[in-house]
Amino acid sequence: MRTKQELTEAVRHDRRAALVVNAHSRRGRRLYRTVRARLVEAGFTLLGAYPVERPGDLDGVLAGAADLGPDLLVAGGGDGTIGTAARVLAHRDIALGLLPLGTTNNFARTVGVPLDLDAAVGVLSGGKVIDVDLGLVGDLRFTNHVGIGFSADIMRSAPPRLKRIAGRLAYPVTALGLLARHRPLRVRVRAEACEHDFVTHQLYVANGGFHAGRPITADANADDRLLVAYPVGGASRRGLLGATARNAATGHRRSLREQPFLAVRQLWVETDRPARIEVDGEPYGLTPVRVGLDANALRLMASPDSPDR
Length: 309
Hints:
Blueprint: H1 4-14, E1 16-22, H2 28-41, E2 45-52, H3 58-67, E3 72-77, H4 79-89, E4 95-100, H5 106-110, H6 117-126, E5 128-137, E6 140-142, E7 145-149, H7 150-157, H8 160-166, H9 170-179, E8 185-191, E9 194-200, E10 202-206, E11 210-211, E12 214-215, E13 227-231, H10 237-250, E14 262-264, E15 267-271, E16 276-279, E17 282-286, E18 289-302
Parallel strand pairs: 1-2, 1-3, 3-4
Antiparallel strand pairs: 5-6, 5-18, 7-10, 7-16, 8-9, 8-15, 10-13, 11-12, 13-14, 15-18, 16-17
Helix pairs in contact: 3-4, 7-9
């Protein structure tokens, strides 16, 4: 496998790329032709370019694009799309290029890829290859987070059309309709020979630094060999709303050293009843569940000044 520096040089000079855009992401269908044109204008030779119309085809199309042998595989879509691309490219000699075309674009924010299309293409053209950690839930790799409880119920219920129209607002709108009948969970987290008990509607385990388009803390990122577990609010529904608002307003000022954050390499989560799980915004299964890390598993194009541990 080439070094990151050698792969960076190959991307910058040979410009051999493949493009996959999820047409079901918020801006995917509308911007596919523009994205393709921008990459060609930037000097990339596209070995293949694919708009994915059916969500069930995404894994196969991404795998086929990787098999073409590009130095850079450009994935356009939201966090679910990027998470799927990361699983396909984990531990491969191909860099992932991000075009954030989704609703919240948490992973792009975490790794510092601009949300503006032209600026994101600029990173693909003049950036550098870094490697970042992926999370592991069971045997499934993920980029950003695992949500247990309320968020998984929201993801299951949020209408796709509302997400395309309202963007991030689709989730709080859906949440208000579910909250009145949602029951809190008793959660036990086992990590590093310790047990932590919570009564909450929602538990997150994050690999990245953003959730719902907002920073989790000032010092969380996707390349620190740590997962961040934290409950949102306590047993009351009002507490869940208040904690969500406080997290959104104060995340950029908080530290992993503060309560209620648990910064660990792996953990086991149990709940008093089977609770739904979502992984990067996609349904996964039910608790109990183990969450771990796959360190430096993914190579991606990032800004030239991005830190790389």
